Amino acid sequence: MLSERELAALLLRLEGILERVEGMLPPVPAPPDWSANAFRWRKRAGRGHLQAVLHPHAIRLDELVAIDEQKHAIDANTRQFVAGVPANNVLLTGSRGTGKSSLVKAMLVKYAARGLRLIEVDKADLVDLPDIAAEVAARRERFIVFCDDLSFDAGDPGYKAL
Predict the structure, then answer these.
(1) Which domains does the chain have, with CATH numbers?
(2) What is the mean pLDDT of residues 84-110?
(3) Does residue 161 have a pLDDT over 70?
(4) What count of other Cβ atoms lies within 10 Å of the Cβ of residue 81?
(5) First-residue to last-residue Cα distance in the chain
(6) 49 pLDDT higher than 80
(7) Which residues on adjacent β-strands are paired with residue 52?
(8) How far is 106 from 57, CA to CA, in rounded Å?
(9) What phi, psi does 50 have (nearest 5°)?
(10) Whole-prediction pTM value?
């Protein structure tokens, strides 16, 4: 059994150890700023978190030319998604510079006031999709998970995550 003095010394020593260990740990990320319309999934020291994008690239749908058929299809699907009725997952394919990313960003501009939100995820972080889904599951907003430049090599873990 320890005396009061020995116990106090032990507790003091344990506090010093805890301070040193805490100094080596990465800081706990702040909770997401849910007032934002767009987010990026960021990883720091193996821990993922949503980082608000305060000024996302705002593109209006009417600024996109020569892709009217794609605009109509994506717009109709996004409208259904935001309304909470059945909608499809979307995979936009095409050459660089054909407006795929701009089309997604235009949907955010058009439907943000109705609760649409965008989460951009790097290809390497697609393995975190369950964590991202858990982060937003209780939210009333509707989230598009957006991965730009999605290409895979054989055995790529991002492909398996999808």
Answers:
(1) 29-161 (3.40.50)
(2) 91
(3) no
(4) 20
(5) 57
(6) yes
(7) 39
(8) 9
(9) -90, 125
(10) 0.79
